[in-house]
Amino acid sequence: MLGRGLAPVLAVLALAGCGSDGGGPGSAGPGSGVRPEGAHVTIRVPADAPTITAGVSLARPGDLVLVAPGVYHESVKVSTERITLRGESRDGVVIDGRLRQPNGIVITAPGVAVQNLTVRGNTQNGVLVTGSARAAAGSPGQGGYDTGDEPVTFLRSFLVSHVTATGNGLYGIYAFSAQDGVIEHSYASGSPDSGIYVGQCKPCRIVVRDNVAELNAVGYEGTNASGEMYVVGNRFAGNRVGLTTSSDHQEKLLPQQGATIAGNLVSDNQQASTPEQADGGWGIGIGVDGGSDNTVVRNRITGNANAGLVITATSDIPANGNEVVDNVFATNGVDIGWAFPTATRGRGNCLRGNDFTTTAPAGLATSAACPTTDVSPSGTWARPKPPRGIPFTDVAAPAPQPQFPNATTAGPTVVPEVPVLPDLANIPLPAVSFLADQAVVRLE
């Protein structure tokens, strides 16, 4: 039975388009004919289609698939460009994988928006946005990113907004081999790797903003994510590691370069009741691991038991030319620590205008003042032993999260081909209470 929002539109389109096969781009569905320019249809689940997958299969470019509250046991694959998949209630629309499927939502078409729903209980990812056929098939390898000899193909243009991704077995929200997108106003917890992950893009032109990631092995991870990559105004507090930007031989497009990490709260990332990552990282706020030419500016980095910010090398890939500017550090094991193997010592890493107490090696404020092209010194410091983690299925449930505005009445979201990139001058230093109303982990 057609829902009230869909039936009148389809009737008009059918009369206007008699004789069309109804199966091509721009059609409202089988038998509906060619729709007028700019027209769109709202497909309601379950009123017009019994499942989200069925609703997505009916949708044509420009349509809205609007999902009523309920628990949906399915893996949704979106391969039609420019459709909007939106829940009527962020906490009430739940895609639950029951640990029987790798991904909750897989986006392989450009211009798709996913909004206002919860994705949980998948063995790999809550939401996957990718141009990689191998990743989309759920077979990128146990680590989630090695696609072998597959050529790099980008998905261009995407939006993930007001999504809760919790208790998934690898990543919460995962943009891999994708460009020109935004991940915003979302929440990620309980990931044994990272809550939000961006990998293998150059130039990325991706903005990760206004999100909360907590109770993950890593809050945010950017691997081989280079060029106009912005991580701004997020809360990465209460993970094992807050944020990393790194180079990794398991992915293509080495090395990582040119990310901007600004205005984030990165605090208390030594939570014991979290799943462990394979490399055992714990107690670190921000890690730059073989990444170069990154800007770390106006972040509040506090209460991380190992180190506030660490710059190091990835095997044979040095970290060069990273600028650490106008950040506030407090009550970390060591505020700023640089640790380089002798063979891969970085160059040109520098500090300016930061508020901090301790560095390793000592004296970095003077010896590494910006600008510099010098070889970066290396230091050591006492590192606490990490506690054992817990199963990702046992992580605390999220608090209620903000809804997408006017979810049931707004039309489809038009995703721009290229997002508006942040103006760094307008990104403030966050308060200690930043986005605290959305978090389970309360800071001291």
TrEMBL record:
Domain Periplasmic copper-binding protein NosD beta helix, residue spans: 168-335
Q: Which domain of life is it from?
A: Bacteria
Q: Where is the signal peptide?
A: none
Q: Which PROSITE patterns did the record assign?
A: PROKAR_LIPOPROTEIN
UniProt-listed Gene3D superfamilies: Single-stranded right-handed beta-helix, Pectin lyase-like (2.160.20.10)
Q: Which residues form a coiled coil?
A: none
Q: Which Pfam families match?
A: NosD
Q: What is this protein called?
A: Periplasmic copper-binding protein NosD beta helix domain-containing protein
